[in-house]
Structure formats: structure tokens, C-alpha cells
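Why does residue order matter? Because the sequence determines the fold. Keep that principle in mind as you read this record.
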Amino acid sequence: MIIFLYPLIEYTCVKRLLFSIFLMVFLFSLLFFSPSSKGDMVFLDSGEAISANETAVIIIDMWDTHECLSDLNRIEKIAPHIDRVIRKARERGMKIIHAPYGTMGFYENYSQYLELNKTVYSLYQDVNIPDYDFMAGGCDGVNDESRHPSMQNPAIEIFPEDLISDDPGKVLGFLEQNNYKNIIYMGVHANRCMLENQLGIIAMAKRDFNVFLVRDLTEVTSSQENVPGIETYNELKEYVLGVIENNWADVIDSEELLH
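Structure:
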């Protein structure tokens, strides 16, 4: 009788073994491949890993026009690349915040503006911003003061889940209330508005956020005549990025956000 039952017993043991293996593989996949409560992890070239769900991307002053033609040309050059990168950032779980200063009248009826500016408690409080010689600004081309921005550059699409605001207190309130820890900056200009405003790099670094600036998705406004030893635009940009990296933020490349 035992001899006849042996194949059945052996078959049952094999089924149990296979089930155990399947269960272990399933649990392993849940542990290592399913999105965690922190969302997708972004691994930077420095070796640092940041959680997408704890990261906001703030796009500063990527306007539809600019009084300095050379600055406008640079804005239009990087705008499509910003759009491409934030599409991936959005997919990974980062919050995209559009901050084209002085154009909120255009967005006053947008849900992305109303959500932040009418529902979030403002936590605004000034922090001291140091003055650098390169903050004076300038124009290395034709300057037409009749040009006034009215909206963000249309090459950068605003999605329904994004936010729009140039109010530092509202943005800070949103970040604090939703436990964001990391801020990635894109836009212009790295030696002026992105540094000297209360929504900018220095202010947020002083508020203990983990701050990043994307090297190839920012530009500077020409002010090399104010910086001893700096003669060209490219020299000025590298100098400004060096000051930022040494004091206020990690400077990264956009490709680090795409892989």
C-alpha cells in the first residue's frame, strides 16, 4: 500500500516546494520592485539617492519673452529640454511647481494656481540673502524694455497635477505641510532671481531643504563686467555655478534625473 502511495506523496511534496518557491519570489518582488511609500528613488551621480515623492521641481522665470534678446534666445533654447525632463520627473512622482514671476494674472483662474494660492497656509518669513558681485545683471545683446513677459514659455507644458505660484510663502507652506525635503531648480537666471528671491536657492537652502540646481537647464544673465577676471558669458556661468555648488546647492546634470 505504501509503495502505491509513494508517487502521490512525492507529487504533493513537489507541489509544496514549487509553491514555496513561487511565494518567495513574489514576496521578493514586492520588497524590491514595488513602489515604496517614498515613491521612486532617484540615484544621482554623486551616489546620493532621493525620494521622488519627497522632491519638488521649481521652474523659475521661464517666460514667454524677455527684454534682453540674448536672454530670450537662451530661454527658448532650454525650454523644450526642461519640458522633456519634467515629464519624466512627473512620472516618477515629483511635484512640478511653475514660478514665472510677475505673470500670475494670466493664471488666476487656473486650478493649478487656485489650489495652491487659495488653500495653502502661507509660511512666509524672510531670510537674509547675501549679495554677490555677479547679481547686478546685464544684457550682452539687444535690449528692448518694451518687452514684458505675460506667461510661462509655452514650450513647457503645465499638467493638471502641477502647481503655479510665485508666492514664496504659499510654496513654502505647501512644501512644509506635505513633508517635501528636496528641491530641484531649473530656469533663469542662476545669478539673479534664482538666488536673490525668497523662493530661490539660497532662501530654501537656509530653510534646510536639500537643494539641487540642474546645470544644463539654467542660464545666467550677463554681468561679467562686475566680476574681476571674468570676461565671457561661459566663464561667468561656470563661476556662478561654482559659487552655488560650494555654498548652497548640489549642481547636477539633467541626465541624472532621466535614468
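Residues 74 and 219 are 7 Å apart (CA to CA).
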